[in-house]
Amino acid sequence: MFPTTDFRRRAAEKAIQYLVLPAMLLAVWQVLFHTGFLRPMTLPPPTRLARTFLELLENGQLLRHVEISVLRVLEGFALASLLGTVLGVGIGLSGKLDRLTDLVLQLMKPIPPIAWIPMAILWFGIEEASKIFIIFMGAFFPILVNVTDGIRQTDRKFVEVARILSVPRGKFVRQVVIAGAFPSIMTGLRVGLGVAWICVVAAELIAASQGVGYMIMDARQLSQPDVVLVGMITIGVIGKLMDCAIRQAERRLVTWKAPYRGESG
Amino acid sequence: MIRNLGKTFTAPGGEIIALDGIGLTVRKGEFLSLVGSSGCGKSTLLRIIAGLETEYEGTVLLGGNPIRGPGLDRGMVFQEHRLFPWLTVEENVAFAIDGGGGEEKTRLVREHLFRVRLTGFEKAFPYQLSGGMAHRVAIARALVNRPRILLMDEPFGSLDAITRIRMQQEILRIWEAERTTMVLVTHDIEEAVYLGDRVAVMSRRPGTIRDVVPVDLPRPRDRSSRAFAFIRKAIYDDFLDEGDGLERQQDELSRYPSGVEDIPVAAATRHGFHAVFQLQAPMGG
């Protein structure tokens, strides 16, 4: 047998494994509707959602809301990445900075980003700034924690190599510490982006006049469960796409590690 | 050159004397093997010479100056290759070079990779290399600054037997070409005898130098020769009963009829309690 056909068959198998569960869920959902088990007002069937989705796509509503939400996420996430990475590296390298900031950060970390919403509205109003603030609060801590951990996990053995070679401090930090922490930094960014996306929707649910979260809240008040569900699924799909994008970036940037995919032996 | 070196570790439950009264002189250009069982402090001794451990009693001099910390005049190869997994082979070697022009740097890296026979693997990442190849890169990295002394801490301990023998030949080839002073720490007596001009034998708890055994055998050495076996056994026995190993060897030696060709040419010098003695045998052969 040619290796190419073998490879193709395996790729097809993998694609099926990937899609079989969602396909089954949709099928069951649709069947339950046809047997009269589900009422359209509480859970409309997939076919109805598909129609609503196309309508929202056609009149441009969905894209407009998505665009605004994504933009907010990117802004808040960019801010959180920058500050989280810089402060994380600083704290990881300096015990002094760690002690200076630890108590404040540890006290703020357990506060859910959503709990900041009242204060955010007081401080920043209901415009863009308050959403970006909420996203920042959500994404900042996972990034900070992962970056700091990554720096702290620098292998002593590599530190010794750098000492033996009398490597200057700057080069040591860049090429040994930060380079070694890079996978952790990427993990932090990935988790941070996920949280940022959760936060934008949460912030929009409570106080907004646009965005996917607002679209859902608006549809709830107008008793349009299909629009609510389309909004929710859109949130899921975009979250997944963002995660894929950042994973792809990680794979491009970390070429020196062969990832583990659950194989044994 | 090391005089009266001592090192104490503080451990829960009291102090542990790791090294006590070590005296050892490493000659310029020689290959010195340092053997001892695990826990005898041989690695600690090497780390002191490297400058990684700076708290000790006594004197450790390098070219007349006391060692206060690491320096580029000493290169080190560890038991694990310790290559940075995120750097390619050439980047790992280049990492050792401080500054310098790009072209000069590239030339040095190429030259040293050629020396360890890894030309063509410049762009590979460590995870793509075999154990022996990764160790050769580590050796290239340690040599690229042209250190006066190359320190090796059980460098081949994690390799399989065949690869280890290849690496031993490789390091000898480099030593013969460069004449860098080399100090090798190992628990493998055969390795110590195969490579060393002299073999320093360490005892344990506290670690001290028991013997320094010269290995006056021509290179390349034949591991299966009588002379080789004789020296190896002398050191081996020395370990086993921490006492009269060399004396018994001498007894055995006296049983050989004199003038037989394959009687070893060996001289064993023993410091410490007992006498310094020489084992003589016919020259040549």
Describe this structure in words.
The complex is a heterodimer of chains A (about 260) and B (about 280). Chain A has about 260 residues and is mainly alpha-helical. Chain A has a single domain, classed as MetI-like (MetI-like fold), CATH 1.10.3720.10. Helices cover about 80% and strands about 0% of the residues of chain A. Chain A is flat and about 75 Å long. In chain A, about 30% of the residues are buried. The mean pLDDT of chain A is about 90. Chain B is α/β, with parallel strands linked by helices. Chain B has helices at about 40-50, 90-95, 100-115, 130-145, 160-180, 190-195, 225-240, 245-255; strands at about 1-10, 15-25, 30-35, 55-60, 65, 75, 150-155, 180-185, 200-205, 210-215, 270. Chain B has a seven-stranded mixed sheet, with helices on both faces. A four-stranded antiparallel sheet of chain B has the order 2-1-4-5, with helices on one face. In chain B, helix 5 links the parallel strand 7 (about 150-155) and strand 8 (about 180-185). In chain B, helix 2 (about 90-95) packs parallel to helix 4. The radius of gyration of chain B is 20 Å and the shape is globular. The interface of A and B includes residues 158, 161, 168, 180 and 255 of A.
- Supply the CATH superfamily name of chain A: MetI-like
Shape of chain B: globular
Determine the number of helices of chain B (DSSP H or I, runs of at least 4 residues).
8
Number of domains of chain A: 1
Strand order of the largest sheet of chain B: 6-7-8-3-9-10-11
C-alpha-based Rg of chain A, rounded: 23 Å
Tell me the radius of gyration of chain B. Answer: 20 Å
Write a compact overview of the structure shown.
Chain A is mostly helical and 265 residues long. Chain A is built from ten helices and no strands. Chain B has eight helices and eleven strands.
